[in-house]
């Protein structure tokens, strides 16, 4: 717990892809304790504003910011904006990502590059840039939102599984690199979560998936947010390099 430079509720969290779904739930969970929250988005301006309004109802200081995380230049501009508002993050939640469904034989090179750029390159560039202030402060939390498929793999989701598997490896390696600086790096790898991302499945397919899950249901985004919040706490400072999968017993 040593090294923290300000009380937890006075810290700042940056949630990438924070406009809806799991990202919005994470932003709202941190806002519930009055923390400074930066909601990043790419195009979902209205959704980001709606999430911001919900966060502000808790008395949190909230900032919305757009950036294409595949662009180092845009991440630099994002950092400059956060500096201007005195909201450089103590906690970085790398949640932004896209999925892809389909046989690998049908995947184009452009689709491969797009999924890898958003999920892996975006996480790399954002982390590389924002971890510098954490290293200087000898305190910080980096939490990457991965997926159960990054652990077990999934048929017809080969690109997505590969990208999330890369995030898991990135998490483990970076945790060792940053541990001496008082910065923890962990990943949360959810199973099936009731978000828009499940919209690619019809009702019969969703029911079949639920029957495979021992808990008998999908996770609620708030349940994922609670785990992210726990990993961000000062007293969680000895937990690092872990891939934790809240999946209702689907994968053990």
Q: Helix/strand/pairing class, anyone?
A: alpha/beta
CATH architecture: 3-Layer(aba) Sandwich
Strand order of the largest sheet: 3-2-1-4-5-6-7
* Principal-axes shape call: globular
Please count the beta strands (DSSP E, at least 2 residues each): 7
Succession of helices and strands: EHEHEHEHEHHEHHE
For this structure, the quaternary state is single chain
Which CATH C-level class is it? Alpha Beta
Distance between the termini: 30 Å
Let me know the largest β-sheet.
Answer: 7 strands, parallel
* CATH homologous superfamily designation: NAD(P)-binding Rossmann-like Domain
The rounded Rg comes to 17 Å
List the helices and strands and how they pair.
Layout: E1 12-15, H1 21-31, E2 36-41, H2 45-56, E3 62-66, H3 72-84, E4 91-94, H4 109-137, E5 140-145, H5 149-152, H6 158-178, E6 183-188, H7 203-212, H8 221-232, E7 243-244
Parallel strand pairs: 1-2, 1-4, 2-3, 4-5, 5-6, 6-7
Helix pairs in contact: 1-2, 1-8, 3-4, 4-6
Domain Ketoreductase: 11-191
Family: Belongs to the short-chain dehydrogenases/reductases (SDR) family.
Pfam family, one: adh_short_C2
């Amino acid at each position: 717990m040593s090294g923290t430079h300000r009380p937890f509720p006075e810290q700042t969290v940056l949630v990438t892809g924070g406009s809806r779904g799991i990202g919005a739930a994470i932003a709202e969970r941190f806002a519930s304790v009055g923390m400074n929250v930066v909601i990043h988005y790419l195009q979902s301006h209205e959704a980001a504003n709606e999430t911001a309004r919900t966060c502000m109802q808790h008395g949190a200081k909230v900032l919305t910011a757009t950036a294409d995380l595949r662009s180092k230049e845009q991440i630099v501009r994002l950092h400059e904006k956060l500096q201007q508002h005195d909201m450089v993050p103590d906690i970085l939640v790398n949640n932004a990502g896209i999925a892809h469904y389909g046989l690998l034989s049908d995947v184009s090179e452009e689709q491969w590059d797009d999924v890898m750029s958003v999920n892996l390159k975006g996480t790399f560039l954002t982390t590389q840039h924002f971890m510098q202030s954490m290293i200087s402060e000898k305190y910080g939390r980096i939490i990457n939102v991965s997926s159960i498929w990054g652990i077990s793999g999934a048929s017809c989701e080969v690109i997505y599984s590969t990208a999330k598997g890369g995030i898991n490896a990135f998490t483990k390696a970076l945790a060792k690199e940053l541990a001496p600086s008082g910065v923890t790096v962990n990943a949360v790898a959810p199973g099936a979560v009731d978000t828009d991302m499940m919209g690619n499945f019809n009702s019969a397919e969703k029911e079949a998936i639920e029957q495979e899950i021992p808990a008998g249901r999908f996770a609620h985004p708030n349940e994922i947010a609670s785990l992210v919040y726990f990993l961000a706490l000062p007293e969680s400072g000895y937990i690092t390099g872990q891939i934790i999968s809240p999946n209702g017993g689907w994968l053990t």
